[in-house]
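Troubleshooting log. The previous structure file for this entry was overwritten by mistake, so regenerating from the original sequence record. Sequence copied from the archived sheet and checked twice against the printout by T.R.
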Amino acid sequence: MIIPASRAHAAFLAAVHAASFPAGARWDEAVMAAQLGLPGVFALVDAAGGMALARVAGESAEVLTLAVMPPARRRGCARALLAAALAEAARRGAGAMFLEVGTANHAARALYAEAGFVPVGQRRRYYPDGSDAVVLRATLDGSISESQSALEKNVL
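Regenerated output below.
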């Protein structure tokens, strides 16, 4: 079950993030709490071991981070969190959602493509290890993709 998160969930968000990212890229509890205090930022948690943190600014939204603990992977948790984040961003008035993903993260790239994200740019040496990121965009207005719509139906 996916629920909205508050600063009270910062420790959970940090634990999921720590289990999902390398040491140099992990966000701790203080960072999560600070993010949740910023305008337009929202978080979602899945008690199965997943989290999504996103931000809406005007007509654009961004997935700041999405993570699932290893034991909960390959069970639809990330898909459900992403669909819920897309729906919440649209509810808040965003017409498009952006994110960055590592060029070598094929599993995440497949998930995002299934949800209607398309490449719109690249960030060279974006991550702490020097690897590149692909910038992806999904439309949240009336031209929402069929796969995105199907994802939302499974969550909302």
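The chain is about 35% helix and 30% strand. Archived copy saved in two places this time.
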